[in-house]
Design brief:
Elements (H helix, E strand, L loop, with lengths): L2 H13 L5 H6 L12 E6 L9 H14 L4 E6 L3 H12 L4 H23 L15 H8 L1 E5 L21 H12 L3 E6 L4 E2 L11 E2 L1 E3 H7 L8 H8 L6 E6 L5 H6 L6 E4 L2
Length: 271
Amino acid sequence: MDSEGLTNFSEALMAGSLTDDQLIAQTGRPSLVNIIPDANVVKIGGQSLIDRGRSAVFPLIDEIVANLPRHKMIIGTGAGTRARHAYSVGLDLKMPTGVLSVLGTFVSMQNARMIHYLLAKHGVPFIEPAQFAQLPLYLEERRAVVFFGMPPYTFWHQNPAVGRIPPHRTDTGVYLVSEVFGTRSMIFVKDERGLFTADPKKDRHARFIPKITVAELEAMDLQDVVVERAVLELMKAAENCRSIYIINGLEPGNLTRALNGEHVGTIITAD
């Protein structure tokens, strides 16, 4: 849009309605600025990694530290088994989705605090949503930060189409950070090689899928997928984060290879 067009558009936006489809369509014309294009978002699974304790977490911490000189990392944490317990108690007490979201948020925060304490001697800070304005400075100075993956919707969390479990949980929260800030990559660190046609822990005939699009994945209609389905929905309209990586964090070196841009695990693309 040229300067004259932008001025005309601004006038139309001021005078128009934000429910006008034609007007809203015009808001997508200007190109976006990638705010932190050299950073990588890394999501550490709660149940898959953190709940396993030091045998799984300590080697991953060492690998993160080894990569600090070469890669900037925004590290988000999952909630894991303790959140599932909190959800089960909350459901038994007939709590609504917004309250369940609060419970899950605090479990994810506990995990983030633990990862932060393990990285504290290397100067890696823990940040909360209110501190994200200082994120570029933290990354420039310390090369990495730790945050809790649960999006801060809490009581404002939308109800799911089925049931009451919050549909936007920690996978979604860390993905949105990558999308909004236009980061270099979005890496989900799990305890499996990546995406399979079924849960490989339960089905030994499950087939590994190294690369797939969101549309192809939806067409397969799998009963179980490796990331929250909300992430796949968000990828359809994504403007920055058009692909995600799922790797096995229990295998030494996988995070390093993914940060270096190598194809390890599964890559899911928007198109």
